[in-house]
Each structure stands twice: as C-alpha cells, then as structure tokens.
Amino acid sequence: MSFRSGLVALAGRPNVGKSTLANALAGVQVAAVSPRPQTTRRRITAVVHGDGWQAVLLDLPGFQKPADALTARMQTTVDDNLADCDAALFVLNATEPVGRGDRFIADRLRASRLPVITVLNKIDRLTPDETAAAIARVAPLVDFLELHPVSAREGRGVEALRADLPQLLRDGPRYFPEGMATDQTEEELAAELIREAALLRLRQEIPHALAVDVQEIEPARHGIVVRAGIVVETESQKGIVVGRGGSRIRDIGSAARSALGRLWGTEVHLDLTVRVRKRWRDDESMLTRLGL
Known about the structure:
- The protein has 292 residues and is α/β, with parallel strands linked by helices.
- The chain has two domains: 4-171, Rossmann fold (3-Layer(aba) Sandwich); 186-289, 2-Layer Sandwich (GMP Synthetase, Chain A, domain 3), CATH 3.30.300.
- The chain is built from nine helices and ten strands.
- It has helices at residues 18-26, 69-84, 100-112, 128-138, 158-164, 186-199, 235-242, 247-264, 284-289; strands at residues 4-11, 44-50, 53-59, 87-93, 116-121, 146-149, 170-171, 211-219, 224-232, 268-276.
- Helix 3 links the parallel strand 4 and strand 5 (116-121).
- It starts with a strand and ends with a helix.
C-alpha cells in the first residue's frame, strides 16, 4: 500500500495566522501565537497525520524586507525552506484588503510552480457576505487546487482543509512516527511558549526586542524544572518586562507554566529571569545561540 507525504510551506505575510493554523492542523501547540508581527522567527515544523499520508507543515516567518541581522536571517529561512518544499498553503487575512506583500508572495509561489491551497483565515470576524467578497478578492492571486475560508482560532473550516491536504502530497516516506507533532526540542518548545506568554502581556514596542533563552530543563521530585531568561536590549525594556514590584514577570511566568504543564502533562517549575543584551538582534553569535 503506497504512502503519501510532503513538506508543505505555510506562506503568508506576518500576522495572518500561520502559527495558529499550524497548531490547529497539528492538534497541539507547537508554535507561539500572538497579535504581534514577527511572532514566528524561525522555521517551526508541525506534523499532520492522516490515513496513509503525512503532511509536514513548515511554519515560516512572514515574508518581509530585512531590517537587521535577525530579520535577514528570518527572510533567508523563508527563501531556503520554500525552495525545499513540495507544496504550499498560501495564508491570507480575510479582514484585510489584498496588499503588496500578498501579491509579492503570490508571485513567488507562481514562480515556484508548487501546488498551492489558498487559505483565507480569520473569517470569524466577517459576515457571510463579507467572507464571499474576501474570497473574490484573493481567488485571482494564484492558481490553487482548493480555496478554504477558515477560522484557525475557532477551528472553523480546519477539518475540511485537513481533508484536502493529501492533494498536495506525493508518494513518499513517513518522515515522523505516528503521534509525533513536531521535531522541536523541549528547549525550543519551552522558549516558544514563554515568549508567547510575554508577547501577550507587553506593549507594542517591546516584542521585537525580546527573546527567550532556555538554559536548562531537568526532572524534579514533582514534575520538571525549566530555567530560562527573557532577553531584551535596554534597561528600560527590562523594567517594562519585570513590571512594578515584579508583577508582570510573575504574570508571564504563571501563564508560561500553565501552558508548558498542559503541553507536557506534568507540573512545571519555571525559574524565569530578565537580562539585558544590547543590540542582540545584530549579534550573530547570540542569534545562533537562540537558534534563529
């Protein structure tokens, strides 16, 4: 009996919901999600298993013009991984008009000649008539096998999209064992969920200057101990992350502990600190340490 598989790029502008969609299709959280652009900074693998098939989703950073060493690496990640993929999900925001970024990605996908499924996300914010108008806007962008309006956040339309994924696949190997949802290490997963907890609780100007460095994960008498540092670029940013009397860092830590506990199914003890590393986004050695 033949098996179908493939590497499928999640292509789209920053903040269109690619990570939320990856999590929904994988059935478990493998990527950080927040309303902030640049939430995804490196390639995240989300594995979708089916009867006789396996789609390996590559949740890539959003296409963007590099502004520093970090965003340059992010765009290189997009370019390199798109070239290696067998197909693509072209993800767009249903609540926004088609922009230059969407057309740029559409051009790249057409040039790649990859089979494409277009995914129109965030339809939970639209009326049926508005959804129909959004479909009409995005349909001409690429030649697609299918077009799916979905709400990745609410799960609407996700099962229908999952059922069409085999159309993108060819005869190939089972890349990951049944039940494995990602190839990320425990350290990478912990960093993703700690950063998500921070992004959801910080002001607009902080997220781009924030990273998470997980130093150690080890078993404890009850559960797991995670030691991690939130890295920012200035003392003023550190003050914002810590909050008055340490209130914000305690809130971040509490949310991250809960998320990690749900992910791993055990009690998590989180030792979370905040430190300043000036201009870390242009520090190649620091970017390598962070896996970016």
